[in-house]
Amino acid sequence: MPLTLIEQTPAQMLKSELNILVDHNQDLELIARIESATPPAILTQLSDFSTAKDIHDYVRKTLAQVLVAEFIENGASLATTWGLGLLQYRSALLPLRNSQSSDQISLLQNFYLQLMQKFLSRLKTQASVNRDGITWLFNLSNQWCRDYGKMACVDINKQAAIRITVPEPNIYAQEDQDGHLHLMHILKAFEVGHLPAIAWPKLSAQEQFGGYLFFAACLSGVSYQKLQMIAHMSLLKKKLDAPFSSLLLPMDSSLKLVNVYDMGALQSGQHETQRWIPDPLSASIYKKQRKNWDFQPQGSQFNSRCIQLFIASWKSTLINQSASSKSSLSGGQLQLLKNALDYFKNTSSLISASKTYHSRILPAFAWHYQQGHFESKDLGFPSLERLASIEIINKGMAPPDQKVREPTFSKESESNIEKTIANQTHWAKSCLIIIDQFAANRLDEALDAISNLEMLAIELEFELGEESLLVLLSRWMQFLIKNATQINVASLAFPKALLPPMAQMYELYADFKDLDADTRLEDYEDLEIESQYNKTSQAILRSAWNSFHEYLISIGYIEANQFIPIKKRSKLAKVDSEYISQAEFQLARETLYSRLDVPLEFRNICIMVMTLSYRLGLRRSEVTKLSSSHVSFLDGVMNRLSVQWWRENRLKTSSSTRLLPMKALLDDKEVLWLELMAIARRRGLWVTEDILHATDKELAVLKSKYASHPILKNKNFLFLDDVNLGDPSKATAAVDKIIKLIHWSLRHPGGSSVNLRFHHLRHSCATNTLFLLMSIHLPHSHKFIFNMMYGNPTAIGKLNSMDPSSNAMDYSDEAVRAHDFTVRAKRARNILMDGDNSSGSEVYAVSCLLGHSSPMTTLTSYIHIIDLLVGACLNECFFTLKTV
């Protein structure tokens, strides 16, 4: 048969010739350029860029592809000729001349811009999300092309300005689709019985241990490093900790695992730990098989080998079963499962698939927490022990017969998160520019810098007043420059750290004058979280915060007792990570009311202040300085509580201003207390009767009694005497008196913590509200919630020993807990989230309730029991799975 010659188009011919050229020709100058420029690790770790020759080939092949596309679109031109010459293609399509027309140069410049953009668009995905990799490739290609242009006398005289867009990593797009599919095949087959039940007694000890780690990796969804710690600790421990079959793991990787369960260090808070609560299947395997694992903790290779032994055993059992006449598997199903088991040839592939799996079955905050996208301030061991939400079973560790080798972990590099000020005020940007310019001039232009800051301060002072926050910050920066020397020049870094989060969190007109020391601690906590700084920048932020307040004290703006310097973040975190259970709160109210040396009307005030903070999450200044007019009534019935700006209380952020539906979280009696208090205070009166132990009928009578008096026209405080109106110093002293009695009552009950303070009422509100809103998703896991929310057996015992007239609930009775929780949860969800069918975010609802600018603040600093909620969610997903 005669051969048919297929005539190629000019473009096809060019493509063929270029393919041959780039495969058999090298640009030695380009290779030398690459070697001298030292490619970044983000490129060299990729297979296509591992050597200078690989990068050389990639760049030239990319250029060849772009040239063919240009030739197809526009035909032969100066641009294609220029590009072919760059590739050392000797057959020029058009002759190059020493002098080109302006139109040709313009065409060449446009082509050059398009060429570089196409270069960037063709980069590998792994490199394109990293600024270092994409910038290096661009600079290399750009200089290579420009040097050739000069040699060929067709240089582009105008500087090409090319914008490089580096996309932010999208965690939602980084899913292991293949791994997830294989994992689903395995778990579904295991659930419906297509995979044989695991005959644990027939497995070797290492295979059993591998099975435990296999399910911990894919069901509990842990990182590689955490899995190694779990494996190590599981062999050191004889039994898991009750009541949730958990393990304590160190927060600091430098703490040896064998020392984690040092009871003295745990109880003192010296060892900061996090609690791992496994899925029920992994916990069940551990309980049943741990007695067989008599080998010592070893390295990660041993753990991975055990997992592979388990998978091999499972696959062998599957093959044997499929050969049986009783097998219900078809050939296709069998091959599907074999492929799925074969896919997980290493632990990292199992963990990668698990990440995708968890992102689809767990609430967003839970799987983000599992995958390490944020850290939270979990409750420390002393709090867990006090609340009896953890019991160390068999406190001793399994004694090793030989020296235990601790697993080694590579310290994760801390991402240097620099908070940009692109969205800050023009004032903040201008101040930082002045500070930077002054620092760059090595302290030579102090007068000019001070003068420029003074001009900004005068503008602000005219508009906002001399005591506004930004005016004070301007004066502080002038003070820093005036006192800057070569020795303390580091203080010039303070404004760069402090200004962006301050400008983000506080209103322009906010002031610091009437804040007490504890409130400033609370404000700093929010400030540090909102800044998203790494540890190094947090240290600078602390110093800047201290410096600013020391300046305010030096000029007499605040008193020295209104500020406590922030020394160590760890100390602040330890104090803040506390939780007050329902039993502890109820006992604190009873204890407060037992102070017969305190007037009854003042006890009523303190009870109401404490209740509103615990139930509604109000800050100290928000609740104590409420006006009686902030409680709104609709048709004679109390409706909402307004947290708003008024002359006696200046809120710091716009998100702090909010309307709270009180009936969502207050119980019926607490609603009557607040109604009674608001009615009395609108008439300038105080409630002088016992409200804590009054019946609903008695409270209704009291409401009628106080409502019979005439309403005052002027605004007044809800909880402070009206003589404090317009006098911040007197008001602060009155607030301190209330807080002092509340602190006494919180710390007095048996079994409570001496570290408890008023702000922990607000923290506890965050946790309790999330418990209530999440309960609809956790119908089989309420034990996780009840154990914490109604915790502290000592407090419960004291409540039960009180006079029956106190009407205290018996929180030791499970039926009482269940009824109280069910009523509260239904009411909270109906009002805060519009019922059970709401598709909104529970965390967002809690964030709005607390007046946070972002749910991230709520998660990282206020919800101290995310580990418990993750454990409950895992229990809900897998409580029906059986290992036998």
Can you characterise this structure?
The strands form two sheets. Strands 3-4-5 form a three-stranded antiparallel beta sheet, with helices on one face. Strands 1-2 form a two-stranded antiparallel ribbon. A hairpin with a 2-residue loop joins β3 and β4. α22 crosses α24. It is mainly α and 884 residues long. The protein contains 38 helices and five strands. The longest helix has 23 residues, at 52-74. Helices cover 56% and strands 2% of the residues.
Brief sketch in words of this structure:
This protein has 884 residues and is an all-alpha fold.
Radius of gyration over all CA atoms, rounded: 34 Å
Q: Which range does the strand content fall in?
A: under 5%
| First-to-last CA distance | 68 Å
Spans of at least 5 consecutive residues whose pLDDT stays below 50 are 1-5, 124-129, 158-162, 164-169, 409-424, 570-575
Mean pLDDT: 80
Structural class: mainly alpha
Question: How many beta-strand segments?
Answer: 5
Count of helical segments? Answer: 38
Shape: globular
- Largest β-sheet summary: 3 strands, antiparallel
Sheet with most strands: strand arrangement: 3-4-5
Pick out its properties:
two-stranded antiparallel sheet, 5 strands, 3-stranded antiparallel sheet, globular, mainly alpha, single chain, 884 residues
Chain-wise SSE layout:
Layout: H1 10-24, H2 28-37, H3 41-44, H4 52-74, H5 78-86, H6 102-121, H7 125-128, H8 131-151, H9 177-192, H10 205-218, H11 224-236, E1 247-250, H12 263-268, E2 273-276, H13 280-289, H14 300-322, H15 331-343, H16 347-361, H17 364-370, H18 381-386, H19 426-440, H20 446-464, H21 469-482, H22 494-505, H23 517-531, H24 535-554, H25 569-576, H26 582-593, H27 600-616, H28 620-624, E3 631-634, E4 637-643, E5 658-660, H29 668-681, H30 696-707, H31 728-747, H32 759-774, H33 782-789, H34 793-800, H35 814-832, H36 842-850, H37 855-861, H38 866-878
Antiparallel strand pairs: 1-2, 3-4, 4-5
